[in-house]
Protein 1
Amino acid sequence: MSVFGTVLSDSYNDSNPVAFALAAAGVLSGILLHDVGLLSIVAVSRRVLNRTAIKWVSVAAGLLLIGFAGYFVYEFITDLMDYIKA
C-alpha cells in the first residue's frame, strides 16, 4: 500500500484522470506480477530442494539480512556522530 499510495498521490491531477488510472493499473499489475513470480519461485524450489537445503538457504538469507542491518546501523551511527560534531 505504501508504494501504491505514494505513486498515486504524486500522479493525481484533476485535469488528467486517464494518467491517474494508467498509473494505478501499472502499480497494481506490477504488484500482481511480483507476487505471482515470487510464488512460482517458491513452489518450484520446494519441489527441487529437500528440507535440509531449504533450511540452509533460510539460514543464509537470515545472515545476509543481519549483515545488512549491521551495515545500516553502522551508517546511522557514523552519520549521527557527524551530525553531533557539526
Protein 2
Amino acid sequence: MNIYNLFKYFFRFFFLQVSLTFITIWYFDNFLIGDYFDGFLFIRDNLLEDRSRFYPFVPYDFIKIDVYLAIFVFVFLIILYLSKFYTYVNELTFTANKSLFDEFFSIYLIWTASYLSFLQLFRFETVSRFYLIIFTFIVPILLVSFRNSEFISSILGRNPSKEKFITFNLEKDSVFRELRLLTFRQNIGDYDGDKTDYSLIKNKIEEINKNSEINLIVLNFSGIDKISKEFEKFMLNVNKKILIISDLDFKFRSQIIVRNEIISNKSIFYINNDIQYGSRYISKRILDILLIIIFLIIFLPLLIVSILIIVVLDGFPAVIKQTRVGLHGKNFEMFKLRTMKKNSHLEREDLQELNEQSGPLFKIENDPRIIKGTKFLRRFSLDEIPQLINVIKGEMSLVGPRPLFPEDNSYFDEHYLRRLNVLPGITGLLQINDRNTDDFHTWFKYDLEYIENWSILLDLKILFKTPFSLIKTKTKGR
C-alpha cells in the first residue's frame, strides 16, 4: 500500500471514528437515555463499581459514559476493518447482483452483535429497547453509505448505475462483463475489429462521445503486449475510465498511474483518469450545495425583479430551457432568463454573417434579437441566475467550462472533447480573464487550463474573482 492510499485509509478511519462517536453519544443522550436521569446515574454507578473491581488503575476522570462509547466505537471499527470486506469497494471484483442488501446485512450483524455485547458487558441496563432497535439499523445504513463513494455520488447527482460504457473486442459471454465496474453501468455498444488499428478505435470513441455520454472504455488487447505511444496519450487525454484486458506481459511506454490485477489468468489494467469522480466529485458537489444556499438568498430578489421586467417588456415565458451538453457528453436542459425575442435561437443561421466570433461561439455586439431594455441583465450576467437550479440538480457546477449546444460538437476535435469531462459551470477561468473573447481557441486554452489544474481551491479563487470581472467588463451574451 503506497503512502497516498495509506493516508486515505487512515483518514477514512479517523473520519468514521469521529462521525460514529458523535452520532452514538448524541443518540444515547437524546433517545437511549433521554430524560431518564435516574437511568444515567444507574449506569454511572455500574461503571464506577466495575472500575473498583476490575481496573482500579484507571483514573476516575475516564469513568464517563461518553468515554466508554468512544472506546467502543474505536474497537468496533477495528473489528469491522479486520473483516476485510469493509476496507474499500473493489471495482475489479466480480459481483452477483447490484443490491446493497448483502453489504448492509453483513455490517448490520457485526454492528448489532458488537453494540448489544457492549451494553450487556458494561451493564447499560436502563436504555430504551425501542430506540435501541432503531439504532441497530441507523449505523449500518451510514456505514454502507460511507463505504464507497458511489452511494454518496448518487445522492449528490451522479449515479454510477446510469453511467455508460463501450467495449472493443470483448466477447459477449466474457467473464469480465461480470466485474463490478461493468455490472453497475450501462453497456451502449460493443465493437469488433483489428486490435492494433488504434486510429480506428480512437475515431470510434470520438464519434460516440460527440453523440452520447461515455464514462468507461473497455479494451480487450489479448495477444498484444504494448500499444503505440500516441494511443497511450489519447487514453490519458480522453479523461475516462479505461479498462484494458491482456493475456501477455503488457507494458506501457509512458508513465501512467495504473492499477494492475490478475483475474482469471489475465492481466487487468485499470486507468481512472476521470477528473471529477469519487471523492473529487463529492467534494465539488458539497462546495456547490453549501454556496448555493448563500447565493439563493442573495439572488432570489434579483431573479424575481428580472422576471417581472421581462414579462412586462415581452410577455411570457421569462425563463426558458436550452439543450446543452454536460458532463461526459450527457445532454441536459439549461435554464436561462429570456433576454431575446421568442424563438431567437432559430435565427442564428440567418444572422451568421454578423457573428463576430469563431467556432461554435455566436455573439453580436448589437444583436437585433435582444429585447429592448434587457441589456443590463446580460451586462451583469443576471440572465444566468436560473442556472442555480441546474447546479442544485447536479447538471452544472458553479465553476466550470460554459456548456455549449449539442450541434456545436461538430467543432470539437479529440483535444477539445476533454472539456466534456468536467461539470459545466456558470463561471470559469474564461469569465474572469477574457469573457468577451472572439476566439474559440481562447476558450479551449482556459478550459484546458482549468481541467489540468482543477481543485477546490481553484474553484474558490474563480468565484472570488467573478464579481470583479463583471464590474470591469461588459458582456456580449450568447
Protein 3
Amino acid sequence: MADLYETLGVDRDASFDDIKKAYRKLARSYHPDVNPDPKMADKFKEITAAYEILSDPDKRQNYDIGGSGFGGGFSNAGFGFGDIMDAFFGGGTQRGPRPRTRPGQDALIKVEINLREATFGCERELNVDTAVVCSKCGGSGCANNSRPRTCDICRGRGETQQVARSVLGQVMTSRPCASCQGFGSVISDPCTECAGDGRIRSRKSIPIKIPAGVETGNRIQLSGQGEVGPGGGNAGDLYVEIVEIPHEYLVREENNLHISIEIPMTSAVLGGVVVIQTLDGDQKVEIKEGTQSGATVVLKGLGVTKLRGSGRGDLIVHIDVAIPGKINKEQAELMRKFAQARNEDGSKVQIHRKSDEGFFSKVRNVFR
C-alpha cells in the first residue's frame, strides 16, 4: 500500500489545513469531471482514500502507528469510539446532500452619533464591506452558463458509507463525501470571479434613518442588508448599534439633560437673567434673588426626544455661586459694611446635617 502522505504530497507532521489544501489541489487535476482518463479516475480514488484517513484524527493516529486506517480492511484499532456512537445514535443515518444555496449571516456595525443627532434624529450613509451576489455568475458559482454535475464518488448522495467491525459487532457509518464536500455535486467549471462560491466581497452604501431619542446600546435592524449566503443565498440582517458621543457640557440622564453654570455672588444675591447655549439655541435663565449654590432651574421640553412616546425631556440647569477668592481693600470695606447691616458675625455658624452628594454634584466634580 502506498504511503498516504506521499500520495497527497505532504509531510508526516502536516496540519489538517495543509492536508485539506493538498487534497483540493490534487482533486482539481484528477477529478473525473475534469480529466476523463480512466487512469486518472483511479488516481482520484487513491488520493480521496488517503484524504479520508489523514483528515480524521483517529484514523490518522492509527495509520501512523502502523494500522491501516480504513483503507486496508476491517480493524478494531482503526474504529474509534466516536464512530460507534455515530452508528448507534444517528451518526450513520443518511442525511443526503447539503444545499449549495444557504442563508447568509447577520452582521453588526457600530455607528457613533452626537447628542444633537440623538435628540433630533438623523440620516446616515453606511459604507459596509460585505458579501454580495457574484454579478458574473448570478450566484450559481458556475462559469459559462454551466451547471454542477453529479458527484461520481457519492453518486449525488453527498455521503460515503463505511462498514467497520467493533466490539459491538459490524456497523455502518456515513461521512460527508470528501470529493464534493457533501454537496452531492461538483462544479467542474467554476466561476473565475467567485471561485464557485456564488458571492464576492464588496463595499456597498446603505442609507439609514436614525430615529430621535436613541442612546448607546440601541440597535436598528436592517432586514436583508447583511451578508449574502453561499450560492447566492438570501442575505442576513444588518444590525446597527448606536454609540452616543458625550457632549462637551451637556450630560444626558435618560430623556433629561443637565448643565452646570457658575454665576457671580452678586447675581445670586440680586437676581437677574443669564443666557446659556442649548441644543435649541440660546435660552434665557431667570436667576431669582437670593439663589443659593446648588439650586436648579428646569427648562421644560428642552431635553432629549422620547424614543417611545411623545414630547421631550427637560433641561435642568444646576447653579454654582462663585465666591471671589481675592478682593481689594475697597471691596473688603464694602463687604464689612454689608455684614454689619445684616448683623452677621463671622464667628457664629449654623450647623446642618450634610446631605448626600447629588447626581450633578458628582458630574460637576468630574468637570473640575
